[in-house]
Write a structure and sequence with these properties.
Blueprint (H helix, E strand, L loop, with lengths): L1 H25 L4 H14 L5 H13 L5 H14 L4 H8 L6 H11 L2 H22 L5 H14 L4 H7 L1
Helix pairs in contact: 1-2, 4-6, 7-8
Length: 165
């Protein structure tokens, strides 16, 4: 009877580990995201031994299969491609359980003020053209306020927006 329980536990452990590997094979995950996924799967498998989850997470971290550093870089590249500013990037990162200091370090390294200005200028130009096509008689004040609201919504600082406009 005891051997059957051990076999069942080993089988569930292997299923949980395989699920973790499959999840990581699909996309980069943060440590917190993977832990959450594994906790949900462990509950579905009726795995009450939380040590198994800790062992799996320790193995994945030790072998660098899951890394907050790599995930932060990947996440930041994705957000830059979406032309989001640093404020929105920080806000969007909250749901992934990333360390704020790590993210700030990556933003500073990959998304310096020069790149932010470049992205901001492109966004302002595109948006200006769109607004002018829809409303040819728009005043400069109205255009500037619409652009400011749009660019602030994209996550850029007010100071940087004012410098570009």
């Amino acid at each position: 009877m005891v051997k059957e329980i051990e076999k069942k536990s080993d089988n569930q452990y292997q299923k949980l580990r395989d699920y973790g590997l499959t999840s990581l094979g699909k996309r980069e995950l943060s440590v917190a995201m993977l832990r959450k996924k594994l906790e949900v799967k462990a509950a579905k498998l009726n795995l009450e031994n939380s040590e198994d989850l800790a062992v799996i997470m320790a193995e994945f971290i030790e072998k660098s299969w899951v890394s907050d550093d790599r995930f932060a870089e990947s996440f930041l590249r994705d957000q830059i491609m979406k032309q989001n500013g640093p404020i929105k990037i920080r806000f969007n990162s909250l749901k992934y359980g990333l360390d704020r200091d790590l993210l700030d370090e990556k933003i500073e390294a990959f998304y310096g003020e020069d790149l932010q200005r470049e992205v901001l200028a492109d966004l302002a130009e595109e948006r200006t053209q769109r607004i002018r096509v829809r409303n040819k008689k728009i005043s400069d004040f109205e255009l500037r306020s619409k652009l400011t609201a749009y660019l602030a919504g994209k996550g850029f600082s007010y100071d940087l927006i004012q410098q570009i406009l």
